[in-house]
Structure formats: C-alpha cells, structure tokens
Amino acid sequence: MFKRINRLQTTQPVPAARLPYRVKLTAGKLYAWCACGHSKKQPFCDGAHASKAPGIKPVRFTPDKDKAVLLCACKQTKNQPYCDGSHLKHTHLEKHYR
Ligand code: FES
C-alpha cells in the first residue's frame, strides 16, 4: 500500500516575515505565539498549524508586566517567542518570506 502524503503540510516552520513584530503585551494576558508561520494573524496563532503543520504547536506565554517586545517572525529564534537576532543569519530563507 502507498502512504498518502499531504503536500500542503510542513514539518518545519516557515518564515512569516523578514523582521520581528514589535508588539505591546499586557500583564497577565495569555498569548499564543505562532511557531509554524502559517497563521494569518501574525505573530499570534490562529489555529492554522492544525491543518498545515500539525507537528508544530504554538508557544503559550503570559507576561508578568506590560511591555513592548519584539516577537520572532522568521520562526528560527532559539528564544521563543522573542526575537534573538536569528533572522539576520537566515538570509537563505529569503525565498520563503511573504
Ligand atoms: S525575527 Fe526571528 S529571530 Fe528575529
């Protein structure tokens, strides 16, 4: 038997943008950062991972104080959900940027 492969799904995150998103966060509020890159509500999850990248789950976090932060858009950060500058190293992903 042949294994059916869904070609619309990804196992690796796809970049949502070239630069991080500057976002004002509210203390005590629960956020879900999109880790797969498929959400249409970047940088937050809209549930798109369920059909497009089922192996990649959003990162949930709750800030302890009101603050402005840079949330990763390239989805390559090692400090999820925050930008760690990795987007500067991943210029080879250029073709994936929307
Ligand atoms: S946008 Fe991903 S590390 Fe900066």
Question: Care to describe what's here?
Answer:
The protein has 98 residues and is mainly beta. The chain has one domain. The chain is 4% helix and 16% strand. The protein has one helix and four strands. The chain has a two-stranded antiparallel sheet. Strands 2-3 form a two-stranded antiparallel ribbon. The longest helix is centred in the middle third of the chain and has 4 residues, at 49-52. It starts with 20 loop residues before the first strand and ends in a 27-residue tail after the last strand. Bound molecules: FE2/S2 (inorganic) cluster. FE2/S2 (inorganic) cluster is lined by residues 20, 72-74, 76-77, 83-87.
Question: What would a concise description of this structure say?
Answer:
The protein is mainly β and 98 residues long. It has 1 helix and 4 strands. The strands form 2 sheets. Strands 1-4 form a two-stranded antiparallel sheet. A two-stranded antiparallel ribbon has the order 2-3.
